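We give its fold:
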Amino acid sequence: MKYLLTLLFFSSLFCRGAEFQVDGRQGLPVIRKDGVPVSARMVYVSKTAQEIATVRPQWSDFTLRFSILKSCDNAALHLRFFSLAFQRKPEEIRFSRIEVRDVTTGRTVKRYRFDGEKIDPDISFWCTGKWKNGKKMPIPATISNHPAPGIPGGTLRIASPGDPSGKLGEFHLILYGIPVEKNRDYVVLCRARADREQNLTSSLYHQTAVPQALTYPGTTLRTQVKLAAESGIHFVTFPIDNLWPDADGNSDYSVLDRICRIILKENPKAQLIPRIDLRTPPEWWKKRYPGEMMKFTSGGNGGYPSISSLRYRRDAAEVLRGAIRYCEKNFPDNMAGYHPTGGNTHEWFYYRSQRRILSGYDEATRRAWRKYLTEKYKTADALQRAWQQPDISPENAEIPSPAYRQKERQNSLLSPRQDAPLIDFHFFLQKEMADTVLTMARTVREETGKRRLCILFYGYLSEFSAIANSPACSGHYALRRVLASPDVDLLAGPISYLDRQLGGGSTTMTAADSILLAGKLWLNEDDTSTHTAYRNGNRAPGWKNGAMTLTESLFLLRRNLAFATFHGFGIWWMDLFGAGWFSDPELWKLMRETDSLDAEMRDQQIPIVPQVAEIVDETSLLYLSPAGFRRNYNSAVSYPLIKNGRAARARTGASTGQYLLDDLLAGKVRSELNIITSAWALTGQQRRQLRATAKHTPTFWCWAPGWLDLSTGQFSTGTVEQTTGFQVRQLENESFAIRPTPAGIQFGLAPAGSGKMEETGNPVLSPVPQEGDLVLAEYRSGAPAILLRPGRVPALFCGTTAVPPELYRAFAAYAGVHLYTDRPAYVQRRGNYLSICAPEDGLYEINPGENCKTVDLQNGKTVGTNSKFHLSLKKGECRILKRIEIRP
């Protein structure tokens, strides 16, 4: 400890410039710059250079400019157009000129020919297609040379029959044979026409199996950095890769340096947070240390190292350390923090863990596994008793086999008596991932002291709750341990992809409100596919739920900004692929429009107290049985209940927060209603604590609370009753399908119910009615499925995981939670402010409470005076309102 404190002291001496810290006092974390609270709004700009041009119905010229970061004698220019997924009619584009010039010398380095019967051999094309019967189907398209009156040399004609399915992607015209030199600029001179006006995006690659970008960021990066600065957003985060040294130990920081200088040229006040890619070591490393690479059941590794590899952790930390030192030496006045990334999609989850394939069969994981068992059990005798295997020892234990991990099991939860090896392995996977990310966080702290921010992707508890081989395979379920680290300042993740569409709820991937209670800041990554993404033809990953018009973009982004502001989260707008998703100045008006509200809530430390608390328990999720090939417990239990259920819970008409179970048990959650989504595996003390909370706060019990007694390792209906106060009985041969009773329909349930749902799990529990209880829904057998227990503090037990969406709102109203709308809506509340987002078109009656007038902050108009009022809202429209108390 003395050494570490000394190291931190001297590290802080080498870090000059402003000091950035997260101050997490009172559960309201804020970023402070030299002690002064600042906005946690940021912009993410991609280092991928995509130049954009408009092709019009009349012949017109346009140019594309590229700055080269790496020499290549056969570069390939990709021109992308047609946006086929949204254009179903036949169309064509013609080019009469594509010529590449060296800007400095003016010399033409490549000119493509469009005469003759055959097309230029350096011209090709590729189309993204749809999948059918496991195969990607090509898009029919024709490419040919055509003569044209008045155009010597002819034209290149690309014709598409359209996309009747509406599911296809872009057309790539690929032009090979371009020689380029490092640190030189080139311009592509084009003349073209199209049947309809559309945008064309372009990139220059070294065309390998995985194309490698050859250019520095260009116009889109510069534009968005400048727009952000004009809107008061100075935090700029950007990705940087290829920082690993070569086999001789030499590192190249030229790309990092160039990107920093490009950003600072547009905004000298920029506060830089490089996202440093540590995912995959270079080829020399992989060949030198084959035992440190991960291993799938198939034997492959996808080029990824083992998360358990101590060598990978050390070497990756040194790569991070080198990058930090370079930045602090060359840009000390502009560095704000560092964001080390690794694992699948940079987000620190095990590579390909969202699929059925299993990993963990490499030597590094085996070593770590045996070390873990030695530390946990100490002796072979203790391990043998726990696993009920007489010949096992920590020194010879193997990774659980794929067949064992994926076998069909009777219960939806793993049994400590029958599945102890797999339960241990689930907890081991979390420890290994947490060890790795905390190694990177500690490196940031060692190099910068407490003067720079450390950001990590981690903790996607809800989003990963239903992945194929159980949530444990992600490695994201050691959130509490990561939160306990003093080296971590901010955790981040994308807005959930489940419910981000127009009219959706903008929920987070995790128990983000508990992250705040731990004194850390949560950052929402807003990679909304805006109307500019639609116009430019690049909408992944949200092409099904993005915007197609400016109005839709404004609706989505205003909702997301309001959500972050009302919860005290940070947010960055992310131009994911460098295609200019946030290059429209109209979008940045939203930042300025909501800046004063963000500042007021931040500076005045307005408390965050959601009315409804959604409770998730990471330990319980580690006991979820992996999906068998016949029984898919993920889709039957965690998908409808946790992952998908967030959408319905967000539409109650009251403000909702997402918390960890241990915060509720510690008395840190101050809600009017608790929805217990996943408290399946509990100790005796946890059961008593949870039962005590239900005596003073209305509680919505989901599925099987307390079903697994961690103290004895047994499943029991008795422990469910100890947890909830509801006596239950276990049903056999019953699905989760339910139908409402007349009392349930009167309570607010839809008459149809979920009678067609064939999914089931084990247990299927039926609550036993007591005098005064109301059965709101029944299973197909007629046994009670949903039971309401009235009283001063009402409670509800829902045995099915197929919770009727309307039940959350109906019970909230019954429990006395103030609902601000007369119909389902996405509502946030903080202090005297409300945010209302409409799931559908219509007239919404707003009930702000008594003795107040209500002002619409968007136009400053009074919309209500001391009473309920109505707002006519479009689907996805978000209004931010202020309640002003009227004194008698």
About this structure: The longest helix spans residues 420-448. The radius of gyration is 29 Å.
